[in-house]
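Sample entry as discussed:
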Amino acid sequence: MNEQEYMKITGGIDERYVAEYENYSARRVINLRKRIGIGIAVAAAVALMIPAGVFAFTQLTHRDNVSIYYGEEGVRLIEESMLADGYTVDNGKIRLTLDVQMCDGNFAHGVYTLTALTEDAKEHIKQSNTRLVYADNGEPVDRLGFGLGSEGSVGDAMGEDEWTITFTCPLFDTRIDRSRPIKVEFYEYVETGVINKDFSREIVEDDTYYKGLYFNLLTEANVPVKKLRSANGTEIMLAPYGVSRVDKNMKDSEINLMFATLKSFKVITADRERIVLFDFSHPNGQGTDANDSFVYSGSSGEGYYTIEFGTYIKLDNIIGVEINGVKYMAE
């Protein structure tokens, strides 16, 4: 892939339509609109880390749409890593396809596609919401309405009769019992026509178009991970698609400060080369604006976050990362 072709791909990640969904929990999502774009140097480095030979792979069902989120190189590596899920279920109105689901042990992350099978279902796929329930008895994971953090859809990934959406879900939230299997169910909010005493319109959850649509949430790591540590002992988890941190002693104010001042992010290879993902401490700027990063934050006192790269890279030759000049190295 030449530079022009690669920039054409990453350039398509500028416009994002954020899926709005009802969420009554105290969980907060910081800057839910855009992802980090990966520069040409990273694409070249990834190519160098791919061993020669013919790969066995699983084909992504909605490959073109998924590539909007991960880039062509990222999609190829996802397929070669056998991470294309392909789980599909439909109810005659809407088809759900789980294109890919990945987990680093701290967060579940992936892409799913909703396809309208009837003319009237086209408008309903744009109204989707999600909830987490325990698979053993259907009990809500959180009775206040805990759902996925949905990042929405970009450009051509949002068509007239098909919508490909990315999601991220924290697994260390105190409301989640990871010892029990968890399902992600779909529904939409509809008005009943009833006017409440306070003159507001009654709105209820409705699964007329989503009945029977669900997938099982992955709660155990299915990708290679590396634990990285800074000089002061702070630990973060590196996965092929991003980094995450879980520290119950970390406060929201610390997370906010971290990302309010997020200026540079680099990966460090075994030969000590620093590959810039983005760097706005550089006079001319490299990569993308720090405000384009995707940051997922827990409620006060939960202490978890993730930064996602917007692609998939092989970890074989990566020994650390550098965030705002602070190195986190593998032990």
Confidence is low (pLDDT under 50) at residues 1-55, 285-293. Helices lie at 3-11, 40-49, 63-80, 252-260. DSSP finds four helices and 19 strands in the chain.
